[in-house]
């Protein structure tokens, strides 16, 4: 199936470059563009994309507020935030808003294509180059909340998995850390998300920091 994408960025040349890369893929189609947050909402309402590539700093309505409003609609698209290294202050709020992850604007084309497919499939993605900075940024800001009842339903192994997720480890890194198979990790991750009522691993990271399961800077 073709992944329908809307590209949102206030720089025309950036949009053109993203569109060129994505339209070159046989199973990706750019169905709309937007130069500000309000335009993103209008375009998404009209064309109903699967994925929105969302810049944060845009006029009229910034990408953060546009993401909040977009994700609050019925059957919203996945939102993949395009970011730079100097936007940590926005990333925590973007995670809380329910975006599917972050990709650096300097990422190579193949990484952009893979990211679009990843979030379109319902998975979360944070660029490896920014993962731990993002985690530390929202960890510093998150107020620790009392542990919910659902947390007690996790097994010891599932609690380990949640902790490693919160440290920013990939499934492969978790498998190596615990000396178990990748398929086993996937099963544990799915059970953790189900028991805690979370949508994806990004929400799991937010959950872990907000409830004091891990702390900023923890190795």
From TrEMBL:
Keyword entries, A-Z: DNA-binding, Phosphoprotein, Transcription, Transcription regulation
Record PROSITE patterns: HTH_LUXR_1, HTH_LUXR_2, RESPONSE_REGULATORY
Modification 4-aspartylphosphate occurs at: 55
Matches recorded under SUPFAM superfamilies: C-terminal effector domain of the bipartite response regulators, CheY-like
Domain Response regulatory: 4-120
Pfam families: GerE, Response_reg
Residue intervals of the HTH luxR-type domain: 147-212
Organism per entry: Solirubrobacter deserti
Transcription in keyword set: yes
The protein's name in its UniProt record: Response regulator transcription factor
């Amino acid at each position: 199936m073709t992944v329908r994408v809307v590209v949102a960025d206030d720089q025309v040349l950036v949009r053109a470059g993203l569109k060129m890369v994505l339209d070159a893929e046989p199973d990706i189609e750019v169905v709309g563009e937007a130069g500000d947050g309000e335009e993103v909402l209008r375009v998404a309402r009209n064309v109903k994309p699967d994925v929105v590539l969302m810049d944060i700093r845009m006029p009229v309505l910034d990408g953060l507020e546009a993401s909040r409003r977009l994700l609050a609609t019925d059957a919203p698209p996945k939102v993949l935030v395009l970011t730079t290294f100097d936007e940590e202050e926005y990333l925590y709020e973007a995670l809380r808003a329910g975006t599917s992850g972050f990709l650096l604007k300097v990422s190579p084309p193949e990484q952009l294509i893979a990211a679009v497919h990843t979030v379109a499939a319902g998975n979360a993605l944070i660029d490896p180059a920014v993962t731990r900075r993002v985690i530390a940024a929202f960890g510093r800001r998150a107020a620790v909340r009392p542990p919910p009842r659902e947390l007690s339903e996790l097994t010891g192994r599932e609690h380990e998995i949640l902790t490693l997720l919160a440290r920013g480890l990939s499934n492969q890194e978790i498998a190596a850390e615990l000396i178990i198979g990748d398929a086993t990790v996937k099963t544990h991750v799915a059970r953790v998300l189900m028991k805690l009522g979370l949508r994806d691993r990004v929400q799991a990271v937010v959950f872990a920091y907000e409830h004091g399961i891990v702390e900023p800077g923890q190795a």
